[in-house]
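Appendix B: complex inputs.
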Amino acid sequence: MPATHHRQDAMLVDERVFEDDHFPRRLLHREHEVRALLRALEQTGDRRGDALVHGPSGVGKTVLVRHAFRRLSDQRGVQTARVHCLGASAATVMREVLTELPGPDPAQNTPRHDLCLMLRDRVDGPLVVALDEADGLARSDVLSQLFDVPELSVVVICHDPDAWLAAADTKVRRRLSGSDIGLDRYGMTELADILDERARVGLADGAVDRNVLEAIADRVAGVARNGIQTLREAARIADQRGHERLPVGVLEDAREQAQRRIRTHNLQSLTLHHQLLYEILRVEGALQAGELHDRYDEIAAEALADRPLTPVAKRTRRRHLDKLVDYDLVKAVGENRNREYRVCDEGVKPTVGLFVE
DNA sequence: ATTCCACGGGAATCGGTGGCAA
DNA sequence: TTGCCACCGATTCCCGTGGAAT
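Resulting structure:
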């Protein structure tokens, strides 16, 4: 967002190629997977196939689908739509699909059934819909609803395909099993290639050596997103310290800082209620559920006093806690009564002031 | 064996919003 | 424009389950 001035002495010359939603011109080292995905989506009989794309966070599932979709629309004239489903309800997903399609957007309070009808009306040719971050959607009925639309096929993007399929109902499972495309972490040299492409555009010429890129790729264990963010943070730090070339010495700080930024961003996207629970855990260290509730009861009223909010019930706290875990902000270790919660990184703090002491 | 309680599914409820008819 | 209604997302209430403590 901050327009980067092109200063002579800055190593970081273009932030945009490091943004999470940056779409690389070339997709490196995923040709096999792109082909597999396109094959899965090919016409067989009277309709197109569906696909289940899976793999750990940050290894390029979304980018893979975007590339495949571009080919589908450029070369086959197939219409495509992508919906980000993290935390979304069935109705929201439906509405988002419609929003992606040409035509008027549905109103916020359009009944779900009407949304399905609108969708059927609006689809008049082959359409592929990608449901990104669809882990929570396995038990939802959106999939069945989408599957009922003729000429529409679906790409589900999730982390754990077995868990997803196990939770889905039979009809959905049948349509998606057998066409799954798994992405793994990149190899060290592969990720170094990817980082190199970003560095060519985003960093000053010759600012970073190949061995530094490989060191980054190694440190992040082949997770592209972390590698790219680490490279950016490393360049920032190097700029601050006045280096002309990126030294290996800043990488550890950079990796931590990158992770911290991602988490801080996640925390900011949640409500104050989530953040209050988080802040209690951050200040107190590890707590068991009972201790967390007690502490919350002690301080919540006061912490929220100057805002139009009141403390929430235990069940809601549990739901919020689940979300904090989903967002990789809090870890739950242990089982049952002995389970403990703790924040992943105490350096990640809510940006709003919450006085929890 | 009995009690305790975290957990999480599910239904009911609340506050806010948009469409629609008068 | 106003009032009504359906809807949504967020929250709360209720409750069954199962492991742990007594």
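Confidence is low (pLDDT under 50) at residues 1-7 of chain A.
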